Amino acid sequence: MNKIHIIIGLLVIACSISCKKYLDAKPDKSLLLPSTIEGLQAVLDYQVFMNNADASWDEASADNYYLPQQTYNTLLDMQKKAYLWENSDYTYQSGNDWGRLYDAVYFCNLALENIETIKRNELNQTQWDNVKGSALFFRAQTFLHTAWIFSKAYDESTASEDYGIVLRTVSDFNAISVRATLLDTYDKIISDFKNAAALLPSIPQSATRPSKPAAYAYLARTYLSMRKYDSALKYSNLSLQLKNDLMDYNDPAVVNISSATRPFKQLNPEVVFQKIISGYSFSNIYPSIERVDTVLFNSFDEYDLRKAAFFAKATPGFTFKGTYNGNRTSLFTGVAADEVFLTRAECEARLNNKDAALNNLNALMEKRWKAGFFVPFEAATAEDALNLILKERRKELIFRGLRWMDIKRLNKEGANITLTRIMDGKLYSLPPNDNRYALPLPLDIISSKVPQNEY
Amino acid sequence: MQLKFIVLLIMLPLWVSAQQKATKIIGKIINTSQQPIPGTSVYFLHNKETIIADSNGNFSVSKPFFPDTLVISHVGYLPQYLPIPLSEAGPLIITLSVSAKELEEVKVNTGYQQLPKERATGSFTKISNEVLNLQSGTNILNRLDGVANGVLFDNTKLPSANRQLDFNIRGINSINGSQDPLIVLDYFPYEGDINNINPDDIESVTILKDASSASIWGTRAGNGVVVITSKKSRFNQPVEIEFHTDVIVTKKPDLFYMPQMDPADYINVEQMLFNNGAYNNIINSVSETALSPAVTVFLNRQNGNISPEDSASQINALKKMDIRNGYNKYMYQQAVTQQYSLNLRGGGNNIAWLVSGGYNKDIGQLGNKWDRVNLHIENTYRPFKNLQLGIGVLYTNTNTGSGKPRYGDISVGGKPVPYLSFADGNGNPLPVDIIYRKSYTDTAGGGKLLNWDYYPLEDYKHNNTKTYLQDIIANIRMEYNFTESLNAAITYQYQQQRNTSKNLADEQSFVARNMINLYSEPDPFTGVVNYIIPLGGILSTSNRIENSQNVRGQFNFSKTWRQHELVAIAGGEVRQIKTTSDGNIVYGYDDDLSTSGSVDFRNSYPDYVTGNPQPIPDGISFTEKTNRYVSTFANAAYTYQEKYTLSGSIRKDASNLFGVNTNDKWNPFGSAGISWNISRERFYKITLLPYLKLRATYGFSGIVDQSRSAVTTLTYVGIDRVTGFERAQVSQFGNPDLKWEKIGTFNFGIDFSFHNNIISGSLEYYRKKGIDLFGPSPIDYTAGLRSNTVTKNIANSLSDGVDITLQSQNISGLFNWNTNFIFNYNVSKTTKYYYPEGAIYQAGFGQTISPIKGRSLYAINSYRWGGLDPTNGNPQGYLNKQLSTEYYSIFNSMNSPDSLIYSGSATPEFFGAIANTFKWKGINLTVNITYKLGYYFRKSALSYDQLFNYGIGNTEFAKRWQVAGDEKNTNVPSMTYPNISGRDQFYLLSTATVLKGDHVSLQFINLSYNLETKGLQRLPFRRIQVYLNASNLGILWRANKDGIDPDYPASIYPPQTFALGLRVNF
After folding, report:
1. Does a structural domain hold residue A433?
2. Backbone angles phi and psi of B15, in degrees to 5
3. What's the predicted TM-score (pTM) here?
4. Which are the contacts of B385, defined by CB distance < 8 A and separation ≥ 6?
5. pLDDT of B218 strictly over 90
6. Contact list, A127 vs chain B (CB under 8 Å)
7. 3-class DSSP state for residue B304?
8. How many Cα atoms are found within 13 Å in the side-chain-facing hemisphere of B62?
9. Is the dihedral of CA B471, B380, B204, B167 positive or negative?
10. How far apart (Å, rounded) are the C-alpha atoms in residues B649 and B630?
């Protein structure tokens, strides 16, 4: 019997020592913990969530397109309502733009929380900075888009009262959401972008990754939407100093204007930061479902190469094919240098620098007009220049996810843009500065801490 | 108290008189054919003495104490309880009858030990070889249907990673984790495909149902355990040879059972949609998506390509077609399965051996071929005293081939058009536009591209998948007896399953031609085509290797002294399952030369049709997974006077959960049990009921869902082809608040048998309490978890159940009639659910746990149906108690638990089987009828959203509301265009689509002729059996009037099968 006791004893001891090691084996080779810089970088490099899942509700609410009655009839209820600015009571169902936007925020917060647990040293500082800068950038970029959709246009006089968005900065899903003021929202966005800019590289390994010029370009976007033109000018300058490539639409090596499906290449030289809509919450604006606004289409000059590059004939009307994503299905909503040129031009005009404004505009337009037919734009006053610039901005940045914000801020400047739709023989309109410009939050998000917009 | 007193009073005089003496008693034990039964044990219940009858069945006892009760028992016979009065002098002639089920001698195999059922406290169901053989087929587990108590086959639940088997034992316990019972083959969990096992290699199946099973097998046993015991040989056994063969024919499936929409109706809807411009997007799309034949006609007419007359006649011709005729005529056939097996076994003094082989060949309903070779070797040696060595090898080789397209496979532009034809009037194959429209593919590339047509009747010949599977299980066992009562055993088992799947789409297949065309770049000037994908076939290969290793060390202790008996085991085990898989795609493959072309996988090339740049799919994948488990276990049973048994067991399991501290990896299990063989008590005098045993167990288990953990983990998803960056995503969102799921189970059972076994059986009651069950809990999705729910401990549940088995011998003698009755009752309810205030409750299909307290765990909850609006046929619900068609407001008003109508359970509350067996001479006839009662299901119903957008119709369309007054006869909403999805959703989830599921089916009939050749020495065999078997014979009665099989509400029910077989023992 003693022998048995010894055997049992030995077995118990042997097991307790080796068990721990034995059980620490990874169940799946592809698993890892978010405790390494490489792992966090890999999360931020997963374009499916970080770059490709942009929201589409704002563009679907804007006036770049119309829907023929028959097309409208085939849409889902939520999409129909979006077309007529009638959405009020909707929930998660199989996902919505609110959720879609905050999904990206989660990854940013995960990266920001975990990168702080890794010591930054001489060997890893480049990668460390890139992870932290990228996470700050992605979060600010998402917050900005969320604010554009769900909040009113920024107005300095009311921003401290107006509803902003939920500024989620932790990955813990039990944390309670609180709706910040619009002032706090923009403050957070600006400070995140500024911190990001300080950490990010001037030249990214790929435009799918955030960079200094991208952060500056987004700061210019942010300030422009706040109508702070001097700051917008400052950051568009900083961005363009680092990245100012423009494609000449005359060059067939760069742009294949006649292509029915993809005149532009993905990650083309103009792209500063890659962001697209693939998988639309609102397929209203899916290229080939939407029809380009007729007046807008007709405003393109005969010698304007954009007309051929951007639009394809459809029955009825025309549909958009000019996405910078190089296919026909995903709209490009990131930043390209053309936008930054136009922002700089607008700011110069608003700050009364007529010549600088026109120079910027012409630098861009020269690349858009058929070679030999371009006559540089001229204007008598800065205001005339501004009007020209806004007209070209409207055309150049069609279906780039900017129009909704532009309408909101321009109406604040007194542009008096009223949107109208005609459907089932009825006229629907959205007057300037209407409360509906802040689109409603989902019903299942509303709580005492997250109030609904006022309608 | 009173009862006890009376019992005592009755016993007192007996006790006193027992002290008196008798001189001698003699007796003889014979069987029903008057032959003596040698070696029978005669047990004196009161005096606790056992004597053994001699070779002539005679016994004698001198100086016995009377009165006493003799218990006469022998293997294979029903024991007899014979009270002997004081004055008995003998001689006694005792006749034992053969036990039909050998109830008393049943030993249940738990996989860890063999346990006499009589001393077991837990709940076991044993399915003997004889019962397993009542059904035919190549899958052993399917033979449990209709014969295993507590087992419910349920095909309505969707298969998933957590549900790979189609049956449950005593209901579903885990909400999120695996719902499958653990399958054990002999000693260890079986990791391979269950179809690998040759049913002819199997001796019996034991089902472990209660908490004692969970504490024996641990983590994976929460849903019960099925222990499959393979055939073994014994020492000193004469050579036995068994040969078995059969042919099974399965009829063609009944495609017309499917709720497919009438083709004429379908075309009329297409016409309406076409007129409304609903197809404009598809017609104008750059993808050149295929259009249905009718839409093509409408378009040709609209474009003026055909005359109105031609259009009308073409449409009329289409309306007369039904795709099911084509499937029936060209695709489906009767399936034929052939089975052969040979089993040899024998044993000498120190060796016991078994060799068997099996071959199965199957041609399926779609002409798909399958064959299986099985080899089984099982040897046990006793090289010297006290040491026993065993080796066992099970080898399986399976080849599976793909067949013709099945119903539903062929669609047009993703839409299941119901009126296609596969051949013209002369039987010549016709093409079907499955992806692109013919008007495009005929002209694309100006003749420079490969033919782009798909022929359903030809293509399967050029595109097939072959799967080769090899499975080997080898085990070595060593058992050493230290003393009489203590031994140690080490068992090691290695299993490797190797699965290779090759899909070859040859040069002529649509898949290959399509891929080549999509990546073709014809030069517009020279006409020379630049093939990005080389001409030739496409070969996709995937390999999967699963290795599992198990080691178990176990001490067995068994000792009987005086009136005590102690049986105990203790040990530990370690197991590892390692799975590696890889896959790739080769282009330009030539099967004759086994050569392939080279392809640029890095760059994107424009899709020929849309121009969208796409990388060429490389199909490259690698995975490597390792699961490790460590367990320690012990259990013991103590029996006193063969009357009282106390048992207990504990077990701890750990596994290599990722990102969890070692201490948190251990799951504890425990159980305790008691049994009382009341019929062995001195006071027990009920001669009518000579065997009566009470038993009870209680056990608990704690389960950590393997897929949840407290920390957030990432998983690599591969390198981005454009940027070259490594990418990862979150595979688990950390949830530190997660507690263990705890399940406590109480089981109480009564085993009994009436005099001469006229009626015997068992009755069991169980109660399962689930605490802190995992489930989806709504969260504020601002959290960004890509979902509006997260798994939390959300619910408590309570299940009550009853399992009854009764065997009765209605008539015995020359003509024999036995009935085997199985009755199961199982009601599981949600007793607590943590749901946030104001959350919206959703109606459903009963597939997920119902969050409503007091209702079934799987409940059919619905929106209240208010009939169709008589003016327009809109479905009506109720909002604030008023009829309403504000569907979204109705959905959002479901904010209290009782706002949804509760129809009842989605799983049967009562189910079971009745088997009647008739025997006359060598002829046996068994008729098995199964029943499922007390539940509801949702029928497959019409959704206009599905119809308009995805082309999925429903036969209900014919019954839709069309004119005022129809609402009296139908609940199917009218057709409106454009459609409101909320309107569909409301109807689909209203009480209008709920039907009662109750039904009774004829599961199988088995007719056999058995010839025992004991007296006929001239014949070379000992026993021969010829049998005929018919199964899936259909529903005898159903509660619903729509002719729906509630087990298959929207899929094809299994067709009838007939088997003819022969079994010979030499």
Report:
1. yes
2. -60, -45
3. 0.83
4. none
5. no
6. none
7. coil
8. 0
9. negative
10. 17
Residue B98: pLDDT band by 50, 70, 90 thresholds?
A: low
> Which residues constitute the domain of residue A27?
2-446
Element of type H or E holding B815: strand B815-833
Q: Give B899-924 pLDDT, tens digit per residue.
A: 999 999 999 999 999 999 999 988 99
Highest mean pLDDT among A405-419, B688-702, B756-770: A405-419
Distance CA B218, CA B743 (A): 12
| Residue of A1, A16, A45, A143 to mutate for B, most B C-beta atoms under 10 A | A45
**Domain assignment present for A455:** no
Residues of chain A with pLDDT under 70: 1-18
Question: Could you give the CA distance from residue A380 to residue B678 in angstroms, rounded to a whole number?
Answer: 112
**CB distance A267–B722 less than 8 Å?**
yes
Query: B555–A4: do the CB atoms touch at under 8 Å?
Result: yes
The amino acid at residue B663 is N
Cβ A259–B980 below 8 Å, yes or no?
no
How far apart (Å, rounded) are the C-alpha atoms in residues A80 and B793? 39
Given this model, what pLDDT does residue B857 score? 86
Q: Which domain CATH number covers A252?
A: 1.25.40.390
| Rounded distance between C-alpha atoms, residue B474 and residue B392, angstroms | 6
Sequence-distant (6+) residues with CB within 8 A of B873 are B960, B961, B962, B966, B967, B973, B974
ipTM value of the model?
0.91
The tokens for B860 are 């059919």
Contacts of B480 in chain A (CB under 8 A): none
Strands B335-347 and B240-250: antiparallel
Per-residue pLDDT tens for B596-619?
Answer: 888 998 888 888 888 788 889 988
Q: Is the distance from CB of A37 to CB of A124 less than 8 angstroms? A: yes
How far is residue B718's CA from residue B721's CA, in Å, rounded to a whole number? 9
Name the average pLDDT for chain A.
93
**Which neighbouring-strand residues pair with B441?**
none
pLDDT band at B837 (very low <50, low <70, confident <90, very high): confident
Distance from CA of B980 to the nearest CA of A (A): 7
Give the pLDDT confidence score for residue B104 in this predicted structure.
Answer: 42
CA terminus-to-terminus distance, chain A: 85
Size of the A and B interface in Cβ pairs below 8 Å? 232
Percent of chain A with pLDDT over 90: 82
| Residues in Cβ contact with B622 at an 8 Å cutoff, skipping those fewer than 6 apart | B580, B581, B582
Q: Is A74 on the interface with B (CB under 8 A)?
A: yes
Whether A34 and chain B come into contact, CB under 8 Å, resolves to: yes
Query: What is the structure's pLDDT at B23?
Result: 63
Strand pairing report for B859-862 and B901-905: antiparallel
**pLDDT of the residue at B8:** 43
Report yes or no on A265 lying in a domain: yes
Separation CA A438–CA A164 (nearest Å) = 10
**Total number of domains in chain A:** 1
Helix (H, G, I), strand (E, B) or coil at B493: strand
Question: Going by C-beta distance under 8 Å and a sequence separation of 6 or more, which residues neighbour residue B192?
Answer: B396, B471, B473, B495, B497, B546
DSSP A236-291: HHHHHHH------TT-TTT--TT-SS-SS-TT-TTEEE--EE-S-S-GGGSTTTSE
d(CA A368, CA A247): 8
A325 contacts A401 by C-beta, under 8 angstroms: no
Residue A403 lies inside a defined structural domain of this protein: yes
> Using omega within 30 degrees of 0 as the cis cutoff, is the peptide bond preceding B67 cis?
yes
Q: How far is CA A249 from CA A151, A254, B557, B942, in A?
A: 37, 7, 88, 52
Q: How many helices (H) and strands (E) does chain B have?
A: 14, 51
Sequence-distant (≥ 6) Cβ neighbours of residue B947 within 8 angstroms: B261, B269, B953, B954, B957
Question: For residue B103, what is the DSSP state?
Answer: G
